[in-house]
Amino acid sequence: MSNSTRCAACKSLRRRCPQDCTLAPYFPSTNPQRFACVHKIFGASNITKMLQQLPVHQRAVAADCISFEASSRVRDPVYGCVGIITQLHQLILVAQRELAEIQGQVALYGAQQGQEQKRMAQSQVHQYNGPIWFTTSQQDPPHLD
Amino acid sequence: MGGSSPCASCKLLRRRCAKDCIFAPYFPSDDPHKFAIVHKVFGASNVSKMLQELPIHQRADAVSSLVYEANARVRDPVYGCVGAISYLQNQVSQLQMQLAVAQAEILCIQMQQEPALPTHQIVSDDRSLLHSNLSNLPQYLNFASTSNVIQDPLKRESLWT
């Protein structure tokens, strides 16, 4: 097998790349950095074992996730992916608090509007220029001659 | 050799536990599962190299996060930790939408009311700060289909033991 057809994994490990190489579909020679990351964090034999334990149709996604975890760990050697999870948790807490506050505001405005409308409706009833005897103590309407 | 028992790592690796063993402070012998899972996913030599590259005061946190990641990967061999990230990003997106709706409602109400009424500037300042935090959140994932991700995969799991 010529050097140019070796996958990034086999190139890095300086070995022959067989046709049925487990890693070749997910670590092409065009992206050596991707394999370098996962090899540094997980090790080539661990990745191979992990992928071999999965059905073929799930290996591409698994390789992408492993690659993401490895690059997160290289970027943040203390917290890795967990740093992202913590950050997201905090964002969610802040967002939930803000949402509760704004929804409270909406409810308050809604209540104020409701009261305002009620007051306006009541004042319109009082302004009605109906027959005077409705507003006086007289019980019966005046007799008409 | 003293009478102290080997740490969980040296027990599993069947070797002498040196006084300056890099694993011993973080993998005590009474919790063999902790090292076993980290060794299974990352490998002892990789973990040792990672810890050696860190200052001592950061190693405990690094071990905790490695244990968390290893557990996630064993529980979900396809998505691992990424499943949790995907789930949380979905939550953030939903909250972003809800916030936008609530903000539009407030704006509507404020426009309908008289200008003399208080407009709660503090809330709107915080909103814009939060909104910028949410919209600047990098899209960590653009490959995992969210419909395939297990919902709430790491329910109530404590990150730090």
TrEMBL record, chain A:
Residues 5-106 form the LOB domain. Pfam families: LOB (PF03195). It comes from the Eukaryota. InterPro entries: LOB. PANTHER family: LOB DOMAIN-CONTAINING PROTEIN 26, LOB DOMAIN-CONTAINING PROTEIN 4-RELATED. Belongs to the LOB domain-containing protein family. This is LOB domain-containing protein. It comes from Nelumbo nucifera (Sacred lotus).
TrEMBL record, chain B:
Belongs to the LOB domain-containing protein family. It comes from Nelumbo nucifera (Sacred lotus). PANTHER family: LOB DOMAIN-CONTAINING PROTEIN 12, LOB DOMAIN-CONTAINING PROTEIN 4-RELATED. Residues 5-106 form the LOB domain. This is LOB domain-containing protein.
